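Most newcomers find our protein records easier to grasp once they have seen one. Read left to right, the backbone structure tokens trace the chain's path through space. Nothing more is needed to start thinking about how sequence determines fold. An example says more than a description, so a record of this kind follows:
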Amino acid sequence: MPRLSLVIPVYKVQGYLAECLDSVLGQDYTDFEVIAVDDCSPDGSGAILDEYAERDARVHVIHLTENVGLGRARNAGMEKVQGDYVLFLDSDDTLTAGALRAIAERLEAAGDPEILVYDYARSYWDGRVRPNQRAELLQPDGPETFPLSERPKLLDLLQIVWNKAYRRDFVLRHELTFPPGYYEDAPWTFCSMISAERIAVLNRVCVMYRQRREGGNILKTVSRKHFDVFDQYRRVFDYLDAHPEFAQWRGPLFRKMVDHFLTILDRPDRLPADARAEFFHRASADYRARLPEGFQRPGGGRGHKYALLEKDAYAAMAGATAAVKLRKAVRTRTRTAVNRSKRSAMGVYYQSQLRLPLDENLALFSAYWSRSVSCNPAAIDAELARLAPHVRRVWAVRPDAVDRVPEGVRYVRVGSKEYWAALARAKYLVNNVNFADSVVKREGQIHLQTHHGTPLKTMGLDQRKYPASTDMDFDKLLERCDRWDFSVSSNRFSTAVWERVYPCSYVSLETGYPRNDVLVNGTSDDVRRARAALGLADGTRAFLYMPTHREYQPGFVPSLDLARLADELGPDVTLLVRGHYFYGGSAHVAELRRSGRIVDVSGHPRVEELYLAADALITDYSSAMFDYAVLDRPIIIYAPDWDIYSAVRGTYFNLLQEAPGAVATSQAELIHLLGSDEYRGPDATARRDAFRRRFCEFDDGRAAERVVRRVFLGETEPLPFVPFAERSHAPAPAQALAAVERA
């Protein structure tokens, strides 16, 4: 039997769940079990739980068949616990290092109390940490254990269950369970605290209480569900009625009840406007029905609100609230005027266009800061033309890139009047990066963020941990991300990262990457055309070398001696070299073109065609590996500076251990791999298969169609995915040549 059992209810937390579980399983104290309850979560949380359970026998997963809510999910977990003590942890919060050892040692020192109360701190999305403002109540003062009557101020702590350890026999003896609905912590916490004869405290922060920027707290959702609070306090007072020995707590719990009612009334993010009067009258009725004899109202403004509740004086309360709102409105209008003044820098013309109606049949596309017509936006553009030809499609293109716009593509030059008009009036804005800070998100506009790679390196808010890699203004970043309505994802791994590092209120679209559809649907003719366009003769092996950007290098200097590599590989091999788009052209590579076996494809407009043409990919840390894996062709990781790169930029997994194929850390190793065919041997193939199943799970050739149907056509029933084992992909060059010869 474990000493401690942690019950973790899980619902829509895939971006935070791994951090939560790692904080538990990484504790230096090991005598515990985890009961994780998947509350029928619609995201990838259940699969994440199963992966952890496979790796660690202490993790036990319960998959509920319907969503039952936080309280009942905890009940399901409690039915399975085996430990002496039950602890609760919300699945987006974390334990601090050494927390379980400190809890276990305190329990032993206090002689196994019925309840141990420990401290927590609030951790904010922007890196701030705020300590518990009532932490002084947890200072050791007096005997090791005590009843609540000796330290009644403990009721002034935030009344939640996850800052306490409960002895399991105590829970069973008092038949403690969680009720359904909002505010389910109240009956459990109050009833357990007044019932315990032996309480102990631990003045140590054991839990980091995550304060999400967006979402994560249903109590901050405008809903009639906040009326559940009346049922929860009915349960508290029913408990008091059934236990006359606890009569002394009627006054303190009445105060807690009224304070809770007033908090809900005071918060604008709780009750619908048309339900406020009804809630007030219900609260007033409960106030009068449960008012203890001799109760003294608090003083000041709070006491005035108590008096209004007692009199059921909603009009007076509403009038006072309206006055507060008026003062806030004046401040808001002042801020709006300042913001308008700032926006005047965008130009009078843009402002005039923003006042015109949206064009419901106009979509504006951009990719890579308007450098090209490419990537996911281009694939969506093509599918939109097929499925919804009534929607006009326009691209934003920088003036220095208009000569590279494909024939037939309609575009506007960035900065022109036409550009600002399209930004202001297009119903749909599609980009694989963010639009400029100056862009205003209009009501009714739909921003579709497609991204442009699966993240190996840290992104978004995670980059704060690696300041040497960026000088980004993270507040501005999140303001840009606030404009997103949809975020396209190629796999559950990416979804979890995006939702955590860009914590805004968009909808994740797990569709696969539209730009990869051609890698699934491509034919032998497509492969041959792509090779012919690059001048690759039949029978020539082509290796595509795609290194990524390094913040600590000012320009593109390949870490390979390309001329030597070409010589070693022999005359039947051609190297296609593509530098990262951040670097532009490369004089170094240009010097090697004369050999004829090194082709600089850095300026090629469509990387997907390079993928089709190449027999194998050589890369380091580029997201190209995730896309190329769709083709199920060999991938070689050349990582001579992994230690430096991972330390400077940070990564989400160890690429050397979880590579999509063979790994080389020196040029000599790389030449050996390529010369021995080890790069396409059984070990490399097995690695690639595991990688593909993890990162190419949604890429079945219909990603663009899924996006268009959901975003532009409003269809909510998603297209089913082709089972992984049944998927095809574009043939390898040798297969494409053989197909032509057979024909």
